[in-house]
Amino acid sequence: MMSIRSLAGACLSAFAALSAFAAPASAQNYPTRTITMIVPFAAGGPTDVISRIVTAHMAQTLGQSIVIENVVGAGGTTATTRAARAANDGYTLITGHMGTHAASVPLYPKLAYHPEKDFEPVALLAGTPILILARKDFPPKDLKEFVAYVKANAEKVNAAHAGIGSVSHASCELLNSILDVKPVGVPFNGTGPAMNALVAGQVDYMCDQIVNAVPQINAGTIKAYAVATPERNPSLPNVPTTTEAGLPAFQAQAWNAVFAPKGTSPAIIATLNAAAIKALDDENVRKRLLELGSVIPAPANRTPEALATLVKNEIAKWTPVLKPAS
Ligand code: ASP
Q: Which of 37, 80, 209 to mutate to test ligand 1, by most ligand atoms within 8 A of the CB atom?
């Protein structure tokens, strides 16, 4: 006959076995319903476009739909705050980027989240070189003329961006500090709408991620002065690098990546990471990302750990550039 003690022990170990089984089982079944991917900018901008291309494939892998929710405002920080506070059950994710998860840190002293402390990195989706763009009838013909013109007309020119702390804002802050100019900033809810204003000739120039610009440059509706990376981009072979065009100091490349709220289970993060990697290896997804000038992350850069390191390095890189002079 079993003693009370051994009976209790048996019950305990049965309970332990059950709960050990129960925890991974929920992660194993994940996802059982629709996942929401928050995009912190307006539809039609680079973050939205990249998210839609990659999540459409991830949804097939996961067997559940992924709904994009565009939550705009405050340079992407409104959406990112919401994502940080969402349930950490794998059903609310965010496509963050160099702005929301790095540049916003020095620019918002009261930021309601910390990119490193409040998120679990999931996967890097795409690198996005920055271009210096202008409305079609902006007078300068090339980058040298652009530099001279902007300096000579510093009081008159304006620059569109997607809100304080967005990529377009942070990268043009870098450009403007190199040129020592302070143009009037014209904020939009994303560079999708900012691009519409540029095409319509309502704003003068913009620093934008390449995916938004390739179709417009190819259609001749805007001007591209240079791409701020060491090499030309294969999607825009005629656009010179900033080094070729005479402004080597301006180097800027952004990135977009998926994050989950802190505490999301490692099993769920692994499932999502694997689905993202599978998407990045899909021929069709690759083709679409490459046509738009994105840089597909190399395998070593696709892990959650690599994304954590990127976020850390990017905060360290952008903080001295953007910290308001005290
Ligand atoms: N990535 C933003 C967008 O999709 C814009 C930005 O950060 O500049 O509109």
A: 209
208 CA closest ligand 1 atom index: 8
Residues with CB under 6 A from ligand 1: 41, 45-48, 97, 99, 162, 166-168, 190-192, 209
Centroid of ligand 1 to alpha carbon of 101 (angstroms) = 13
Last residue of a domain, one of 215, 245, 275: 245
Before 140, cis peptide (omega within 30)?
Answer: no
Q: Which two tokens stand for residue 260?
A: 């989950």
* 23 and 119 co-located in one domain: yes
Cα 168 to averaged position of ligand 1 atoms, centre (Å): 6
Phi, psi (rounded to 5 degrees) for 242: -60, -30
Which range of residues forms the domain containing residue 172? 129-245
Lowest-confidence range among 26-35, 110-119, 202-211? 26-35
Output the CA 10–ligand 1 centroid distance in Å.
57
Residue reference for tokens 């705009």: 72
Asked if 113 and 261 sit in the same domain, the reply is yes
Instruction: Note the pLDDT of residue 112.
Output: 97
Give the distance (Å) from ligand 1 centre to CA of residue 191.
5
User: Cα separation of 41 and 21, whole Å?
Assistant: 40
Are residues 106 and 30 both part of a single domain?
A: yes
Residues 120, 6 share a domain: yes
pLDDT reported for residue 78: 97
In this structure, the residue with its CA closest to atom 1 of ligand 1 is: 47
CATH number of the domain that residue 107 is part of: 3.40.190.150
Least confident of 1-15, 98-112, 179-193, 247-261: 1-15
pTM for the structure as a whole: 0.91
Are 54 and 83 in contact by the 8 Å Cβ rule? The answer is no
Last residue of a domain, one of 204, 226, 245: 245
In this predicted model, which residue has the larger pLDDT, 289 or 14? 289
Number of other CB atoms surrounding residue 203 within 10 Å? 25
